[in-house]
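Supplementary notes for students who missed Thursday's class. We covered one full example, reproduced here. Read the sequence, then the structure, then the short commentary at the end.
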Amino acid sequence: MKDTLSRKPSYGKAMIRKVPASSSQTATPSTDPSGSVGTGDLPEETSTALPTAKVHPQGHSHSHEALVKLRKRWSEIRAWTISKFRLATRPHGDRLQLQTKFNLGIILAFAMLAIGISIVTVSWLNHNTIREAERRVNLYIRSSWEIYNGRLERLLSATEVLAQKKMVRDLLSSPQDEALLNMVRQNLETTRIEQNVEVLNLLDSQGRVLLRTRLPQTSGDLLSDKQIISLALSGGSSVGGTVILEKDGLETEGAGLVEQCVQNGGDARGMMLVTAAPILENGELIGIVQMGSLLNGATEEVDRIRDAVFEDETYKGKPLGTATIFMGDLRISTNVLDSLGEPAVGTRASPEVAERVLHEGASWTGRAWVVDTWYLAQYDPIRDPDGNIIGMLYVGELEQIYLDMRTQALVLLLTVVLAGMAFSFFVFYLITRGVLGPVEELAVATTRLADGDLAYRVPIRTGDEVGDLGRSFNKMAQHLEIHQLAIEQQRQALKTLNLELETTNRNYMEMLGFVTHELKNPLASATLSLHTVKDGYLGELNTAQKRSLESVASSLDYFYDMIKNYLDLSRLEKGELKVHKTSINLVPEVVEPILLGLAQGFREKEMGVENQIPSELKLRADRDLLRIVFDNLLSNAIKYGRQGGRVVLDLNESDNELIFGVCNEGESIPPEKVGLLFQKFSRLDGPEYAGKKGTGLGLFICKEIIDGHGGKIWVETADAGWTRFRFSLARRVHGTLDQFKGDSDEREH
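Structure (token representation):
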């Protein structure tokens, strides 16, 4: 429901008249306007090819120079062709100039102007249609209030007439006269039926009921605390307004009122137009005449509004206008019909309307969905004599009539505009058809040239500027064809050179794998022997000896890590490191062995390790490759972590993936350096990394392994004082590296 707002005064407060002491009483109604009123991962599956360590060819510069020359030559030919085209469009001899022919393109400008006029006109039409609709709805609601208040005015006048009757005054003077009491009751009952009201009572000067005209005609109850009666007693003037009667009040006033309210809305309360006129004798208040018209189910009230405002017209089988009286947000009287053709009492206004009108005290104007179609509607608050909002008055006009008016105007306008454009385009086509033929042939030739057909030539049919342009194009194509032959020869030479470089690169990788493999076992043996001596298994060492051996052990450990990384790199580059997924228990098979192997490093740096990964966690992955990942990440945590700090292994789970974290206390990685972490042979520089040895391969290898599992790896830098590496694995791993050929449940050795 679109909420378009405007400002207007509200209606619905009590009407008060001053009653003079004389028998000839005049009534001057007044309204009390108030308030303002309104007019509304699994991450993406990647298949990442492992980069191959290639030697950049020295001969590549020859190809680059050839391409630069070709681009330069193409630019020269293009500039020359454009200059020739411009020359062809200038006056030259007695020939009809191309520019003169294209001047007829002014017709296109006319078409653009027509489109612009259409857009402006459509916008203006839409704006004015909406504004006119809002203006009319605003007038309708004002007229509706006049009818609503007119009904209250008539009741007030009838009440004042009854207050002047002599028999009523006599009864107030002699309330015990039964004959007079029956005569007055009969007279008032006749008036009640004539006025079509539900309540007509006579009260004494204290506000106590002397008689009721509606069965069961109870009396004796005190009404001085009721809003209208209280105002009449205290002010000595006629009062009228809209009030809410609770269930017990309706039962007291007469039989059938509660049933009427329940039948017309499902609520046992009622909303009533109530008037009270004081009866004065020599300037003193001796009684009050009270009259009330129940609005629940009072279709004659809303029909009177509809008939006066919309004349009960229909449009395409729909009522042109509708009116409704709400008690709160509940429809209690309406000529809006439901799908069965019955008044739609018992339904409620939308929360948006209720909030605007009932709680903010403002009017609401906009599009409203009424049963099965849209209406342009306005809702105004109805207030009781104390100014409290107790209901709403609604008037709506069928929106379709405005839409059809707008559509008809648009169709007529667009028909004229499109007809003019079509005629202009037809004339332009006839004129340019004979001019653009050679140009189209040149365009075809340009396309053929762009597709690589350098042997194609433009047929020269005329001797004018277009013919000159065709000859220039053919000359350009001839030059390009010659250059293409030269480039093809160079390409063949580069292809041969590239095959030689691939052979060299393959030999390099085989040598790298051989050297690292041959060094690994002797180095491991030397490291083991050194640690045996250093740890005192072959005899006690003095402090200087132990410190010297620790330095040597540190260098051997670094050398061993470097050999291991280079060996893994060699296997990656040659495509020998394959992903073999099996069902593994992560903690006992991967994490705990790595933690055990690095325990000495944790002890030396006095670091605490917290493993928060559940010990029962199982997944399908390559056990040995995940050991490489955890080994690299935990080794980095020891190397770069704070002395005496903590290392935390954690896990976050989602429906599709598992996210592992290896976090250590220490200096955070600057955000601008994050992009370097996972590159091959890349190491961070800075004073905080001084003295930290490394090959720059560990994180690169981790990334390739995680990519091969179909996951991602990244580092978080937002938390100062912590370095947090995280990687994701699918619950059912199915990704592989491009170079990882084979995927079995058993590892090949």
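Commentary. DSSP finds 17 helices and 20 strands in the chain. Confidence is low (pLDDT under 50) at residues 1-11, 18-63, 87-96, 733-749. If anything here is unclear, bring it to office hours.
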